[in-house]
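Justification of resources, computational component.

The compute hours requested in this renewal are based largely on the per-chain cost of generating structure records like the one below. Each record pairs the submitted sequence with a full C-alpha cell output. That output is archived, and it is also reused by downstream analysis tasks.
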Amino acid sequence: MLNKKLILIFLVLFGIITLILLFLTLRSSQKNEIAPTASPTPFVTLSPTRSPLISLSPSPTVSVGPLRVVNILPLENINKQQLPIQFITITFNYPIHSAQVVYNVDPFVQTTIKDGDLPNQIVISPKNIWQEGITTITISVNTTAVNGTHLQAPVTYKIFTAFPTGGE
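The structure output for this chain reads:
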C-alpha cells in the first residue's frame, strides 16, 4: 500500500515538473521573437564648402498593409483541453497598446488585458477563470495599431477549457 502511494506521489510530482518545464520553454520561445521596428537613418549632406553637415531625419514608418494577427498562443485547438486559468497571448504585425484592442468574449467572462512582453503583443486572461467548455474571443476591426492601421476583418479564436478529472 505504501509503495502505491509513493508511486502516485512520484507521478504527480513528475507531471507538475513536466508542466513547469513546458511552460518555461514556451515562455522563452515567445521572448525570442523580434518585433519589426523602424530606426532613424542619418543622411550626410555636403555643403558647397565641402564641410560635411550631418542631419538626422527619422525614416518614415513603412506600413505594409493593414493590421494583422500573426500568432495566438496557445495555438487554437478545441480538441485540446486547457486549464480555465489559461492566459492568451496575441501577437500582431505592428506595435499595439492593449487599450486600443476591442474584443468580445462569448460566453461572457470578465477579463483583463495588458501589454505583452513585446511591443506588438497583448495578453488576455480571465479575471477569475474561463467558463468550462468552448470560449470564443473575437477581436474587432475597431482594434487600432500604434501606426493607426486597423484589422480588415474580425479575428476569432476558440479555446476549450476544463479542469482535469481525477483518476480512480
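Confidence is low (pLDDT under 50) at residues 32-61. The helical segments are 2-31.
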